[in-house]
Amino acid sequence: MDNKNITNFNKILKACPPDVKDQFTKSRPHLEECLNQEQMYAWVDSGIKIASQSNNSWDTTVNLFRVSPIIIGMLKPDDFMNWLDTGVDLTTQYPVLGTGYFSASPSVLRILPATKINDWASLGSKLYQGTWKSGTLSNRFFESSGDLLEQLDFNQLTRFVDFLNIVAKHSYDLSSECLTLALRLFPLVGNDKDRFISLSLNLVETGWRQLKAFYDASLKSLPRVDASQRKRFLDLSERLHISGIPNMPNTILEISQALQLIEKRDHTKLFDIADPLLDLYPSSFPEFIKSSPVVLGKVSFDQLSAWCEEGKALLQTNPEGGLAFFKIESSRSEKFLEQISSAVEYQTISNLIELYCRALAGEEISLADSRELVEKNIGWVAADSPTTEGSTVYLPEAIDRYSKKSDNFLWYKVVSTHQVGRMEFGSFRFSFNKPSDRFENARILLETGSTNGKDSGISAATDIQKFFNFFEERQLSLDIFSVIEDGRIDAKIKDEYKGISKGYIYIQSDALKSRPDTRDLKAREALLELLVQISLGQSKSIPIPVNYQDQAQEVVKIARHAMDAKSSVEDTAEATIRIYRILIDVVNDEVDEDDWDPLDFEDEESEGDNFSDPEGFKQSLDSMGNSAGDDPADTLEEKYNSPQEVDYRGEFKPELTQLLEKLREQGQFKEGDNDSESITQEMMDEFAQNTVELSQELNEGVGSITSDEVVENMLKEVGLQKPESLEGGQGPLVHVDETGGELESDEPETFVYDEWDFRAGDYKPRWCIVRQKYMAEGEDAYYGNIVQSYGNLVMQVRRQFELLVPETMRKQRRLQDGEDIDIDDVIETMVDIKTGSSPNEKMYWRRNKVHRDVAVIFLLDTSASTAEAIDDSKAVSDQSTAPDDPVEYMLWLRSRRGEGTKRTYKRIIDLEKEALILLINAIEAIGDTYGIYGFSGYGRENVEFYTVKDLDELFSDKVKRRIDRIAPLHATRMGPAIRHSTSKLESLDARTKLMFLISDGRPQDRGYSREGVEKEYAVHDTRMALDEARSKGINPFCLTVDRNGHDYLKTMMSEMGYEVLDDIHALPHRLLYLYRKLTT
Length: 1080
What we know:
Blueprint: H1 3-14, H2 18-34, H3 37-51, H4 58-72, H5 77-93, H6 98-109, H7 117-126, H8 132-151, H9 154-170, H10 172-189, H11 193-206, H12 211-221, H13 230-242, H14 248-260, H15 267-280, H16 284-296, H17 301-317, H18 319-326, H19 331-340, E1 344-345, H20 346-361, E2 366-369, H21 370-375, E3 387-388, E4 392-395, E5 398-399, H22 405-424, H23 443-447, H24 463-468, H25 474-496, H26 498-513, H27 523-535, E6 542-545, H28 549-562, H29 569-583, E7 596-599, H30 617-620, H31 654-667, H32 681-690, H33 696-700, H34 707-717, E8 720-721, E9 734-735, E10 750-757, E11 762-774, H35 781-789, H36 792-802, E12 809-815, E13 820-821, H37 823-834, E14 844-849, E15 854-861, H38 886-897, H39 908-926, E16 929-937, E17 943-949, H40 957-964, H41 974-986, E18 992-999, H42 1013-1031, E19 1035-1040, H43 1046-1053, E20 1057-1060, H44 1067-1078
Parallel strand pairs: 2-4, 11-17, 15-16, 15-18, 18-19, 19-20
Antiparallel strand pairs: 1-5, 3-4, 6-7, 8-9, 10-11, 12-14, 13-14, 16-17
């Protein structure tokens, strides 16, 4: 460079900020190495031109000098000069774009060919329209160009800029947002970017206001779709848009949420089935996809296709009916699914099976999902297995093991029968001292100490525990006992319940087919498997190790004698002793394939009642506890594994169940009232240490819960707690006194709340757990019968409520869409345009109806006392008034429930349900938001909160069926239920929020409300919960049918509204009146 040029440039540099001179000085040596003198002159001259434009151009000059050494390293000198000239021309014409162009160049030119530099600059300048917003958009494009070119070729980039330019004509802000979101979307689109850009161009032409929502929805949706199907997903989205479906972005978001619940590898099949719906009736396509996860939970893809074809046929004759079909909101849809599905769900058959179980047992028996028992953490771990803990039959969530629905239902019926059989025929009523009818009583010899039974000096908690304590190999003895007892129960069922005998044998035979080959097992395990197959009715020969043929014959003989309809659980115990004595001497080693012979017992006959032990049997008991492993030569014996479970029999835990039953009995008596020996903490500790019914993980404490915690949970389950250590003796377990610390729960649908302690003047933190669940469903007919029984009153009340609906209209302005253009807003927009201000795009208005804005929760007390007859003279039971003590509640409720269909009188709960039905009919006429919930529970860790109708749930047949199942349950801990209801109402945006508490008495629960100060504790906690609700804008009101309600309601409700209903029969009418009064 000549001195004249440098001198000229130095003069200009003096007028510039120091950054310009510094950057020039740093970059100049690098450029001189690569450029000739003429090119250097052009470079300096370019800096002079830019810097001379205005003070605002100095930043552009700094950026030019800063990036020049980088660019010269990427381009040939001639291409560099072209880049430089393009930048100078762009900056001269559009000064605000220079900085963006030069700053972005290093990242862009890593990808962009030098021949496209001018075209790239033209794309950026195309977006600039002389306004500051368009300048911002152009510079944003330059900044993003490097990232965009990593995803797009130049033709795609050009089309995308065309799209941005069209959007900018409507809104620069929206165009900028689309650019930002596209940077995240293009990697998800993959090779389908042309399709995505085409869809974007289509949208901007026909519905540009949906663009932002579409981009947001696509960003969430595309990751949920199988990568190979994303182009198809975009095609389907475009077709939906073209069809005119409203709110397309939300629709594709809902579709993707459904797809997320289906395996990605199945998305192709699903789209293949659904695709024709877009041509036939586009609105049905999203409904079909959204329902698919639910349907596929019941049927296969072939059956899903059949369901789709049925819906298509309906669409052609009745489009609305077809839509309801695909939404599964029609009986035709549900019936067709039921018809093609072979699966049977617990929820659909629970009511019927529960009635069946009660009929079998002749007493009250409850049914529940097996998962509920597992969640209690009291020792049961198989959520998909049937079982019982002595009071409830637990069944798996669904069964789909057979191709016929009838067979799956039969399986449910058989497994339920087996669990009832365990309860009915004494599996859990074993008595150690009760003589056996079919064997000589060897238990007496065990007890006199002639074996190696364990003796810790602590009495066993139960008789069955005492029995198993005599066996060194406890798992082996439990396995033998379980197989023999299950075989006995099977025999008893087939003898007593002739009607199910044929189906029972069918399920038994099917279970037999899935048994393992004994030759795949070790020696002792093979003999246990022999025992299982005998219990399932095996009549064919079974391979048995040659060395143990005699032992196997003796095992079969004993087992068949015990597995008889005339046998008792004590006979099972005697058979266990004898079979254990044989198997303990069988070394559990692998057996060579040549050392097996079939054991043929087809002609073996039962000896009836004539059974005699072999000679020397009594003497052999002396060494029964010594396993074969005591010999040093046998120390390498293989580990023994229990037999594979028989699926229809499920889990069998006699020790745990008998312990739970004894704890329940102990909990029903006050100290000193029970003649039987109380279970002490030491007994519980020994049980936890010795039992094998807790899984190995629990015993070792390596799982999520330890055996000690299981014992603790068992005590909570029956309302007992660990006693304080007593000096010089064992302490009996006592009633829970609500001591302890904060509660934690990570289970789904559980919520932890504080509780107010008025004595301390402070909250007990995290003191109660609310367990939210849906009320079970009953029959449709109940709701209709109640409506019919009240006749004209229903219509009269509905008409009265309809008068509450306002008809006034209110004009709402400044909307993006509406009935018509607001001329005032148009004029204001034109003025903004003329003056260069940013115009307001919201120029529409519409009239909105002024609606009632009411949200209400009806909180229903479903405690045991609501089973009280409202007319004592008609009650069947002698005691129609509920006891105050929570434990006595359970005994009283059991007797009330046992009356079943014999009840000819109305209870408090029945009138509450009738009042709700009348109220629902009225509220549905005026459109108020309402939810119906029941609450009960037992103890602070188990406050049950039942959803009959959720606040955001539409009224449906499901709600009707849930009302039928509202029934008296347990105790009444009001505080947590009120707090949970408050949290639900608090989240709603409504002008009027009402909480309607319907109760039959004071709050009462274990450790919450007893005589004296504890009654005040419950009342004060409830009052505080109501005060909390009122402080959050919720108006609580309490309606009670307790004639003594004035005694505590003055304190509990204070300044809040309440009413004591003297005439319980007036409840339905009074509830309607109060609702009208409180919401108008």
